[in-house]
Amino acid sequence: xxxxxxxxxxxxxxxxxxxxxxxxxxxxxxxxxxxxxxxxxxxxxxxxxxxxxxxxxxxxxxxxxxxxxxxxxxxxxxxxxxxxxxxxxxxxxxxxxxxxxxxxxxxxxxxxxxxxxxxxxxxxxxxxxxxxxxxxxxxxxxxxxxxxxxxxxxxxxxxxxxxxxxxxxxxxxxxxxxxxxxxxxxxxxxxxxxxxxxxxxxxxxxxxxxxxxxxxxxxxxxxxxxxxxxxxxxxxxxxxxxxxxxxxxxxx
Length: 252
Hints:
Blueprint: E1 8-13, E2 18-23, H1 32-39, E3 47-51, H2 57-65, E4 70-75, H3 78-87, E5 93-96, H4 104-107, E6 111-116, H5 132-138, H6 144-154, E7 155-166, H7 170-177, E8 181-190, E9 199-206, E10 213-214, E11 218-219, H8 235-241
Parallel strand pairs: 3-4, 3-6, 4-5, 6-7, 8-10, 8-11
Antiparallel strand pairs: 1-2, 7-9, 8-9
């Protein structure tokens, strides 16, 4: 069943450069897909696949930064796949399906980049929301290792795999990358200076052999607390979240 128009909101990202239809109740994109899009090093003419693309926020933000991309997404929930088709430009392909059993159209292609924002909690962890959309987005039904294996299988040699997730799942992310990728870059995202990072962006190159690098944390907010009901982003975070700037991990 599709979302009714009255059940949707039309929300701005990247300072209004991108607008996304998403459910009023259910899984709603915040900053994580924006970070993910900013970290993807795609250039015009290349192909990008997003695993579990939801309503298409990450791909839409990436498209706003880089013109001329071949965009594809796979999404298990029909309602969200329909929204992604509505939110993404003509020519982008959104397939409904299970990433562990890729549709033939995707199995036939190797991509330059694969990106993913998997559920933050493993099976049996956290509290699964009653709403099916939020539940599927927050607590995994498919193991994280399967997400990574499926992504690497879809990558061409020397293609990049980029993922955002919780910092406490870093070991679960790195294990499936071992022996299949190199040049792994890890960027912790800390809400404020002096605080432990709760998010991490991991990027790896298929078939590479370069050593792993742990990058200095990126601080999202300035100061010790919000000055009133205002998001006081750091200069770098503002460039990404409000202006759609590229977050080049290789340059940090």
